[in-house]
Design a protein that fits this description.
533 residues; Rieske Iron-sulfur Protein; Rieske 2Fe-2S domain-containing protein; alpha+beta; binds FE2/S2 (inorganic) cluster; 9% strand
């Protein structure tokens, strides 16, 4: 990074500045504000780095040891001596000044080299994370792009800075980033679209780690061993599992080499509403998009932690029928269940029906997805609004979207690793058993139905691009479900359940999504401690 040679540009006479106190000059396409403070010339961009309002209208603190300029639009303050932004975020560009023997002011307007701008943009981006300064993130990445930097370096930097701040490992930031980057790659012609999708990824990582301390990963390294990794995850030994992940990457392995181990670990239990399998599948795309080994290794360590910390719901009584069904699976059954028989029922009954078709997992998958799509289309919204429900009845839209996104992940993982079909299908059955009780078969679904399911899903994806949702968790579920359904419809066209799934998606996107349950929480708290209501 060599500093380019100074080129001094005349800005006018010092006496003029002394008389007026401040001057605005335009040179080389730049607007420059000049101030005189204690007899010293200070020069900076006239456009405030926040929203571009003119700093020439700002206030320079009188009698202060430092030359502090306040932009009066939003009170950002800049130290024109040190270059620090004292209040606010983005850095203000200053220009070196000198006075000639003839009393003329000259400024060095030479722009710093591109590699300097790129490094500064990435450093400044990292400054945004703690306070999740979304708008500033967009500006810093825009500066990176303008300087010719690789936009994906911004996400790589976010991962580098934040990966150890995820207390419980990977979050939806991982699969959402995979989908945003995939969409972004499909059409790279719109700079606004390109930037917005990238900032959604970075913002999500920052949001999920805001104000968190570092939860350091153990530094050890061990030889990669697929069975050993799965066993370490099973006994919740993060240090041992992560040591093997580090060993894998040190030995030159890639995501493709370790995916099978992660898929086995992710599907070892019906756990955490299927997050582990969804995250594992999405690592495939994220690894391809990011490309660099450091980011992929860090994300693998994050994923390891999240699989280990996932709640193993197959161990609670509600899902206790899962383990015997898995043990009994022989893969010989040829009676593919009718989707209608999977829409409601006890877990034992649903798992028996799924197992009965075990010889044809592809067909059983379609039956399960049809039942899951039907359940979502017929979700009884009164459950979302109830304030007197128990904790186990706290059901919402995201319980239903997960059946389908989990199903998509199961299919993609099990097509690559077919011995995992039993776990995958039976775990979809766990979703079906759980959600069936919260549906209303009499619900009139006609207004959501469509003869063009793929078009409906593509329209939904288009809408997600400018989702307007403050909560990342909401936007990413809209994104992930739309993306998963499009993948299902394009890779396996003309399945009967696609129309139902498209209708369910449309209903989901057009229905209220209650994200806070003020009275329900109070009711449950009083009931829990046995206090009178
Ligand atoms: S535009 Fe200057 S502080 Fe907002």
């Amino acid at each position: 990074m060599t500093r380019l040679e100074s080129v001094w540009t005349d800005m006018g006479s010092l006496s003029d500045l002394e008389e007026k106190g401040r001057l605005l000059r335009k040179r080389d396409g730049k607007q420059i504000a000049l101030f005189l403070h204690d007899g010293v010339v200070k020069a900076c961009d006239n456009r405030c780095p926040h929203e571009g309002y003119p700093l020439i209208e700002g206030t320079v603190a009188e009698g202060s040891a430092h030359c502090v300029l306040t932009c009066n639009w939003h009170n950002w303050k800049f130290d024109l001596d040190s270059g620090e932004t004292l209040t606010g975020g983005d850095k203000l560009r200053r220009y070196p000044a000198r006075i000639t023997s003839a009393g003329r002011i000259e400024l060095d307007l030479v722009d710093p080299p591109a590699d300097t701008v790129i490094v500064e943009a990435l450093d400044n981006l990292a400054d945004c994370f703690d306070r999740v300064e979304y708008d500033r993130m967009a500006r810093e990445v825009a500066r990176l792009i303008k300087a010719g930097g690789d936009p994906l370096d911004a996400l790589r930097r976010a991962i580098t800075e934040l990966w150890e701040k995820f207390e419980y490992g990977a979050t939806h930031a991982l699969p959402a980033s995979a989908d945003w980057l995939s969409l972004r790659k499909e059409d790279g012609t719109d700079p606004v679209r390109n930037l917005s999708m990238l900032v959604e990824c970075i913002g999500h990582f920052a949001w999920d780690t805001r104000r968190e301390p570092v939860y350091a990963f153990a530094a050890g390294r061990a030889d990669w061993d697929e069975d050993g990794f799965v066993a370490a995850v099973e006994r919740e030994d993060e240090a041992a599992a992560c040591a093997m992940v580090r060993g894998a990457f040190a030995a030159g392995l890639s995501w493709a080499d370790v995916e099978r181990a992660f898929a086995r670990a992710a599907l070892a239990h019906y756990a955490d509403f299927g997050h582990s399998a969804i995250y594992t599948y999405k690592m495939r795309a994220l690894s391809d998009h990011l490309g660099d080994r450091d980011s992929v290794e860090r994300l693998c360590l994050l994923l390891t932690r999240s699989i280990i910390t996932a709640s193993r719901e197959d161990l609670i009584p509600e899902f206790r029928a899962y383990a015997p069904a898995l043990t009994a699976w022989d893969g010989m059954g040829t009676e593919v269940p009718d989707a209608d028989t999977l829409k409601k029922g006890s877990l034992r009954a649903i798992l028996e029906k799924i197992s009965a078709g075990g010889a044809d997992p592809d067909a059983v998958f379609d039956a399960c997805m049809e039942a899951g799509a039907w359940q979502m289309l017929h979700f009884d919204l009164s459950w979302q609004d109830r304030t007197d429900s128990t904790v186990s009845q706290s059901v919402g839209w995201l319980d239903f979207t997960h059946t389908l996104t989990f199903g998509n992940a199961v299919r993609k993982l099990c097509e690559a690793h077919p011995d995992l079909w039993p776990q995958g299908l039976l775990q979809i059955g766990c979703f079906l058993s759980r959600n069936g009780g919260f549906t209303d078969p009499a619900l009139d679904s006609a207004k959501w139905e469509t003869d063009a399911p793929l078009s409906a899903v593509e329209a939904a994806l288009k809408g997600v691009e400018d989702h307007g949702r403050f909560e990342y968790i909401v936007a990413c579920h809209q994104l992930k479900l739309s993306f998963a359904l499009r993948e299902e419809m394009t890779e396996r066209p003309d399945r009967s359940w696609h129309r139902i799934a498209a209708a369910a998606l449309t209903r989901f996107l057009n229905s209220p999504l209650k994200r806070k349950h003020v009275r329900r929480v109070a009711h449950q708290a009083l009931a829990f401690v046995g206090a009178a209501e």
